[in-house]
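User: Batch of two.

Assistant: Item 1 of 2:
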Amino acid sequence: MTLHADVAELLAVAGIPGVDVDDAVADEHVRWSAYRRVVSVIASSPSRDRDRDRDRAIVATILRDPVEMVAKSAVVALVDEIAMRTAGPAEFREWASGLLPEIDGLEGEGHREFIRRRIRDWLFHLHVQDGHVPTTAELAEVTDWMQRTLAEGSRSPAVLALLAESGRRKKTRNVAENRARSRELRPR
């Protein structure tokens, strides 16, 4: 397929009218914006209606983009949005496993590894949301981004204490320590 056909197909599948496909093909910034809209529509479908084959086909189409950075960024945006809307780690793991063969098609190993790493980070996050308190070693396995995300969003005093003590970056440790002391986490 051509890039024009791919972009037109993605917009049609997501039901997004009014995007000039010729402009999207000519300008990677316009194309990224179109992909971002597609990702938002796809991710907003309720998990019970999520079609893994459709999502895999969308990822495969996006990954054919000639600008690998645009493709990688769009797939990461989809992974992020699905992870934030999923019911738990098992559901997300099942969904993400369908993407891995498509992700392996990326030429740049760095891009492949970045997406795989993001999936691992989100699995970790979802386990923590389910009540798992990680060990220091488990915490060391996630990215600085995920440590900061947990420091900024976790409501678990145990997780915040771990991050305040063992977070990789000083900013992460400070955020976790401040949030652990804040009124919002104290029992009423």
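Item 2 of 2:
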Amino acid sequence: MTIVDDQGRPEPPLAADETATLLGFLDFQRATLAWKCAGLDAAGLRARTAASSMTLGGLLKHMAYVEGAWFSHSLHARDREAPFDAVDWKANPDWEWESAAEDTPDQLHALWQDAVDRSRARVAEALAGGGLDQLARRPWPDGSAPSLRWILCHMIEEYARHNGHADLLREAVDGQTGE
């Protein structure tokens, strides 16, 4: 039975195998970002704090990019998907952060949620085809490649780090606080 907290986040399982534990923590972190970005209008998703150019909308678009980069591009060696396939990353390495201000809240939430849904399917595909030890099909420049286990741990870390940013941004927008 999955326990869902007051913010709608599924609690990671207390006693499960490695795969279920990793996926449980990743889904908890994903749900935390969704909670921090929920119910905001375009101005709220564009709000900044201090000297940072980071926004909650930028976080949603960045994490949509990161989901695809790891679970599709790296793990399965697939081409980048729209809208990220048409970006000149060398000319604008911060495109996802900067362009989020042009997107509506619905577009940002849908882009991120679609990326999460595709990632879940790609992780399931990888687990069925080789488990956590499976190496990414697109190697790094030095020829090494991370395992699916490494990618899952990295994604948990990526979300946790950015969820700390989301805490600060959301509090600056409307005072909402929470873990």
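The two ends are 23 Å apart (CA to CA).
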